[in-house]
Design brief:
By secondary structure, the chain is of the alpha+beta class. Helix content is about 40%, strand content about 15%. It contains 16 helices and twelve strands. Strands 3-7-8-5-4-6 form a six-stranded antiparallel β-sheet. Strands 1-2 form a two-stranded antiparallel ribbon. Strands 9-12 form a two-stranded antiparallel ribbon. Helix 1 packs parallel to helix 3, helix 2 runs antiparallel to helix 7 and helix 4 (about 55-60) crosses helix 5 (about 65-75).
């Protein structure tokens, strides 16, 4: 029964979509057998990607509530499904591997033997998966960079979804968790270069979920703004889902450990695949050629030009404004990128764009 339920789990996770699917390889089974007990895998395989109650699941699986409720609760507390309390009624929902479970498992910052084992097994699976299915350079990106809005030239057009602080200002419920990429790296014994780890933010129902289940900490708007400030000072990249509405998270990513950034950097033109829609503009009268921006640039898109003003390789530039936030002389501003492709309105439009690119 155990082997069969994990094989079915592979098929279920493939149908759910996302950045990593199920795959019939040894690394997959080594990982999921630690993530899920056989009973949890069975429930996961039946759990729909819409909110359902324990009673709904009992009817769907022809099992008793007394049997299912502790399994669903354990899964929610381990980040193996979504769970939200709405007016006293508990709802559960199936999750993808990523964005989803792979992140949820490490948000609480656990350091148990199981956490360390999962960090290694996850790395092994992602490495094996990418060896079989590399990221398509011509595919539509599921994530996007959000530039630092205070660096945008005031004469340029700025949409609400381009203003990272608008996420905070418009949200009543905000949380922060550990960066799953860096925490998993720490569990594997890697150096995270002194980068702040408690800077991944969630909004709305996602924030409620992380606070109730995954060790998230509730933030005031002032505290949330401080998280953004600390991230910018550390040279981290604001990143979220590639949609204009309904974004529920902001990750603050580094170049060494973040999966999305590392995937982009592995491509021939990182800035074409992973971008904010803004380009850095250098003021030659203000620039003192200190090269701080070159050192900070996460995609190594800057070199010093003959006139002692940095030159941008736009095939590599993310438009993240990490260069601008590190410039004490305020010689760098961000301007709209010419002919930048539009940002899908919501998750449905994003899925359509991704599917369309796969068919080409």
């Amino acid at each position: 029964m155990s082997l069969e339920v994990y094989k079915q789990l592979s098929e279920v996770m493939t149908k759910r979509g996302g950045d990593f699917l199920g795959m019939d390889i040894p690394e997959f089974y080594a990982l999921v057998e630690v993530m899920f007990t056989p009973e949890e895998a069975e429930v996961n395989n039946a759990l729909p990607m819409r909110p359902v109650t324990v009673e709904d699941m009992a009817e769907l699986m022809n099992k008793g509530r007394e049997e299912l409720e502790p399994i669903l609760e354990a899964m929610a507390n381990k980040g193996l499904c979504l769970a939200v309390d709405s007016d006293g009624t508990q709802f559960y929902e199936g999750a993808r591997f990523m964005p989803g479970m792979f992140e949820f498992m490490f948000m609480a910052g656990g350091v148990t033997a199981r956490d360390k084992k999962l960090a290694k097994l996850l790395y092994d699976y992602r490495t094996a998966y990418r060896a079989v299915i590399p990221k398509d350079e011509n595919g539509f990106p599921t994530y996007r960079v959000i530039t630092v809005d205070r660096t945008i030239d005031p004469d340029k057009q700025v949409q609400t979804h381009d203003q990272v602080r608008s996420y905070v200002e418009e949200s009543e419920y905000i949380s922060v968790t550990q960066c799953f990429c860096r925490h998993a790296a720490l569990l594997r014994g890697e150096d995270i270069h002194g980068i702040p780890n408690d800077v991944c933010m969630q909004f709305g129902a996602a924030a409620q979920f992380t606070v109730q289940r995954l060790g998230g900490r509730l933030l005031t708007k002032e505290e949330a703004m401080d998280v953004l400030k600390r991230s910018e000072e550390a040279g981290l990249i604001h990143m979220s889902s590639n949609t204009a509405e309904g974004n529920i998270f902001i990750c603050n990513c580094d170049r060494w450990h973040c999966g999305a950034v590392k995937t982009a950097l592995s491509m021939s033109k990182p800035g074409v695949f992973f971008n904010s829609g803004f380009d850095p503009i250098f003021d030659p009268d203000r620039c003192i050629a200190c090269e701080t921006c070159i050192e900070r640039c996460p995609s190594e898109a800057l070199t010093m030009g003959e006139d002692d003003v940095p030159v941008v390789d736009f095939d590599r530039c993310f438009g993240c404004a990490v260069c601008a936030t590190g410039c004490k002389d305020e010689a760098i501003s961000m301007a709209n990128k010419p002919n930048f492709r539009g940002v899908p309105l919501d998750s449905t439009a994003l899925e359509e764009a991704v599917n369309t690119s796969l068919q080409k």
